[in-house]
Specification:
Layout (H helix, E strand, L loop, with lengths): L2 E7 L7 H14 L4 E7 L11 H4 L3 E2 L5 E2 L2 H9 L8 E3 H13 L10 H18 L5 E6 L9 H14 L4 E8 L2 E2 L4 E2 L2 H12 L6 E6 L5 H11 L6 E5 L7 H7 L2 H8 L11 H11 L3 E9 L9 H13 L2 E9 L8 H4 L5 E4 L8 H13 L4 E4 L1 H13 L7 E2 L9 E5 L14 E9 L4 H6 L3 E8 L1 E3 L4 H7 L1 E6 L6 E6 L5 E4 L14 H16 L1
Parallel strand pairs: 1-6, 1-7, 2-5, 2-6, 7-10, 10-11, 12-13, 12-14, 14-15, 15-23, 16-17
Antiparallel strand pairs: 3-4, 8-9, 17-20, 18-19, 18-21, 21-22, 22-23
Helix pairs in contact: 1-3, 1-9, 4-5, 5-6, 11-12, 12-18, 14-15
């Protein structure tokens, strides 16, 4: 029978439920268990696809085309296994499903209520992955904090689920905060006590407490927490601030979180966890032999979570190259022709990030012009690739008014235009080209050499594409299409001849980079930037 673990949060948000969930899953996976993680978000949006990155960070896209919470990126990066639509559920989706059933008459005239109908739908979604037969353990992370109004149906659903599942088939891990008061010079347990008290009022006794803290917790404090929160002392787990999120699995191993979980679920400690490759990655990450500086140019740089997967992909690629990658976040609105040299001075490579809309577009194009002309390694993703196409049209082909129809519908040279199947679509949510699509690589191209194969699959999230009516003009001038979708003929990758590294990808390679398998495009971009730094 599949076992279920629920991870809740208290006191404050942003304590790291996603990292704790992913770290625990990694430890259980390393012991030989089949594990997956799902995220339940309490907001009423159907998914984060229509949310501004300033609101929610990046929108992560799965293989099957689901637009999901960024925590699913952590799950994939730690476990090296893909997630799906079933791994992220929102309140909006729950209510949408219940309302659809009501309209279809499925409830046979009953009054539709939060209990039992909403809670039943939540429980149904909690079981989907477990009932597939693919997993021994399903970890469910509940978004928000205990006490939030919007979280109440989820907490009630967990209470009912545990009663129905029976003893030893589920447990609750409560992540809470032990703040340090500098004036008093001590850690305070009262916020944790109040958080657990709130959870108890809703009918749930947590089995394990994971305590986020800036300082190590003494045995005395552990005893106090255990006594007043009704848990065993070995179920009080310290989660001290770490220098990198990739340290957390080893910290949780030291705290024996995985052993405590297996004991409470009556599961055997199959093997000692095999974490050799993980430790090897950490060794290379923390002991680089070189350092480079890469500019990340985007319009949401004030919020690092807006480019979370890109930031993490650079960590993976840097470790692979035994190189420390320092990112300089540059706001695209600040890039001007007169200050490009100053803004990009000292950089060993430049990545132009994805995005939507016209704000900051001219800055991205200006940055690309500069790195192309000065032979600085360049990597463009999605809109970044499209900007490279526009820049080349304007400054190499001589089409000064060339643009994307997203920014200028009346441009005489629509080198980037809306995909045909997108033109009749009115709704914004979940209607882009989403998920994994195949791509065939041109023999002898840089892309083919990077991947080491002729056919790949990558994840997409866009409405606009390279306009193939101009393809010959580009290739005659030296910008070639080295990756093509075999079904739609969509240009997936462009690259510039006679340049150290000038590659644009219409897809999002950052979404498939993991600790175990750093993405080859990032690995090679970092290597090219390192070579550029040494040449300088």
């Amino acid at each position: 029978m599949t076992k279920y673990i629920f991870v809740t949060g208290g006191v404050t948000s942003s304590l790291g439920k996603g990292i704790i969930s992913a770290s625990l899953a990694k430890l259980l996976q390393a012991r030989g268990y089949r594990v997956t993680i799902q995220k339940f978000d309490p907001y009423i949006n159907i998914d984060p696809g229509t949310l501004n990155p300033y609101e929610h960070g990046e929108c992560y896209v799965t293989e099957d085309g689901a637009e999901t919470d960024l925590d699913l990126g952590h799950y994939e990066r730690f476990l090296n296994t893909p997630t799906s639509q079933a791994n992220n559920i929102t309140t909006g989706r729950i209510y949408q499903n219940v309302i659809n059933k009501e309209r279809e008459g499925e409830y046979l005239g009953k009054t539709v209520q939060v209990v039992p109908h909403i809670t039943d739908e939540i429980k149904r979604n909690m079981r989907i992955l477990g009932e597939s037969g693919e997993y021994d353990i399903v970890i469910t992370e509940l978004g928000g904090t205990v006490g939030d109004i919007e979280s109440l149906p989820y907490i009630e659903a967990v209470r009912q689920f545990r009663w129905e599942a029976g003893a030893h088939n589920s447990l609750v891990i409560h992540l809470t905060l032990i703040p340090y008061l500098a004036a008093a010079g001590e850690l305070k347990t009262k916020p944790t006590q109040h958080s657990v008290k709130t959870l108890l009022e809703y009918g749930i006794q947590p089995d394990i407490l994971v305590c986020r803290t800036e300082h190590h917790i003494s045995t005395e404090i552990r005893k106090k927490i255990a006594l007043f929160c009704n848990v065993n002392i070995n179920a009080v787990i310290e989660s001290v601030d770490a220098s990198t999120i990739y340290d957390v699995p080893l910290l949780m191993l030291k705290e024996q979180l995985d052993k405590t979980v297996l004991t409470k679920l009556k599961l055997p400690n199959k093997n000692e966890p095999d974490l050799e490759s993980w430790k090897d990655f950490l060794g290379r990450l923390k002991n680089p032999t070189a350092e480079i500086k890469i500019g990340l140019i985007g319009k949401y740089v004030e919020l690092p979570d807006a480019y979370k997967s890109i930031n993490e992909a650079f960590i993976h690629a840097g470790a692979k190259n035994e190189c420390k990658v320092r990112l300089k976040h540059i706001h695209s609105e600040d890039m001007l022709p007169e200050n490009a040299a100053e803004k990009l001075a000292g950089l060993d490579g430049v990545l132009v990030a994805p995005g939507f809309g016209s704000r900051g577009i001219d800055g991205k194009i200006e940055a690309i012009r500069y790195v192309r002309e000065h032979n600085i390694p360049f990597f463009g993703i999605c809109l970044g690739m499209q900007c490279a196409v526009v820049e080349f049209a304007r400054n190499v082909l001589g089409w000064k008014d060339a643009h994307s129809t997203e920014m200028d519908p009346d441009t005489p040279y629509p080198v980037i235009s809306m995909m045909e199947e997108q033109k009749k679509i009115k709704n914004k949510g979940g209607t882009m080209r989403l998920g994994a699509y195949p791509c065939e690589l041109k023999k002898g191209s840089k892309a083919a050499a990077i991947y080491g194969k002729s056919r790949i699959s990558e994840r997409h999230r866009h409405r606009y594409e390279f306009n193939n009516q101009y393809l010959k003009n580009y290739e005659d001038a030296g910008l070639i299409a080295s990756g093509i979708n075999p079904d739609s003929n969509l240009v997936e990758i462009v690259e510039l001849k006679n340049h150290p590294f000038f590659v644009g990808a219409q897809f999002h390679p950052e979404l498939k980079s993991t600790v175990a398998n750093p993405h080859p495009l990032f690995v090679n971009f970092v290597a090219a930037s390192l070579a550029h730094a040494r040449k300088k």
